[in-house]
């Protein structure tokens, strides 16, 4: 380790840790399962070939996803540092510093706008609780809501306070404890909504659409978007798993935990597909496939219309938005934890001071995204409002670069032998070692470059993903 580095840990403060495997798995799965699973996965699956998309997605989770989760966890656990210190542990060069900082900054930029969407979810949940089923299903309900700066900002602040409060309580008493309670609740609520959707008249066509290959919708974009979605969904390349790895005890099996995180994340993605696609088919009939392709508006415009017309609207609206809220909350907790951990490690701040300092930045950046649809509606960055801009710059540009930096760190500094030693520490298994070595050596970087180029071209309208 470089001798110039002083962190809270070096100063003798003990690093926080999860209590054991369950704690780590619940927190990492809580991070992975989020808006990406419920709102993004179903419309991408519907748009890019149903079962074909699903198969490509599954393969990429169990190859690329496996490589990235394992690498990040190994890097974090070996170094006991958040991303910047973790990269610096392996060398004090500009390249190491760049790799560390890009991984550290991504969650700092994502947490604010992600929490703005979390605020929208809270607004919908509370409105359903007040019985506004018909109003929310109205044509302009969503546009009217986001045009009001005060409402959007208010609900963002409510969501932000929930996130900050959990971070304040620390790794074991905050992040771990909350994830352990919320994740099982989320699985149960997902099953309830799934049963509701799949039993609506006409839903069977949606189930078929999801599980049968739709070859007319398959193109090479199926592959690019499925792999891109995998990064998004597993919370890879955003510093989180390095940070969570640094809290993982060395007697916990990295391979076993990774497999469980992959399982939970995929389970909720598939359940979300079964919540949304059949319900849209039941409501729209033959026009369903067109509606599903509309994409992001699905959760806030299409689903409220469906709930408004199909019985039990109020109850199912509350349950659906509650589960989306829980998913978004555990993800935003992980984003903020990674950011706060960097402040603690790099600036030697205590946890409360780091939480308050980053909390201030988080509220300012989130407010820009909240007001980007109304008060600041005229301000555009690269032609985008603030929320879309932060989403683009992190997901389409920075995350693929951060993932490339991780692969290069593994290949050049940590070494494959170093990874193996950490994974098999304490006699733990490394059954997928061959897959890991092959993918990290020969496949990952090439695909990451393809994803980077395609998503930038997509954002500038050269291609359409
Ligand atoms: N993996 C989480 C999700 O699928 O929602 C968290 C997350 C992913 C947050 C990507 C932000 C992001 F850009």
Describe this structure in words.
Helix content is 77%, strand content 0%. It has helices at 21-32, 35-47, 51-79, 83-89, 94-129, 133-136, 141-146, 149-168, 171-198, 203-211, 220-234, 240-246, 254-284, 288-293, 297-309, 313-347, 351-371, 386-414, 416-423, 433-459. The site of 4-fluoro-L-phenylalanine has 13 residues, from helix 2, helix 5, helix 11 and helix 18.
Return the CATH topology: Hydantoin permease
Average pLDDT: 92
Run of helices and strands: HHHHHHHHHHHHHHHHHHHH
- What is the name of the CATH class? Mainly Alpha
Q: Taking Cα atoms only, what radius of gyration do you get, to the nearest Å? A: 21 Å
Distance N terminus to C terminus?
43 Å
Contiguous helical run count:
20
Share of helical residues: over 70%
Regions with little confidence, pLDDT below 50 for 5+ residues:
1-12
Q: What number of domains? A: 1
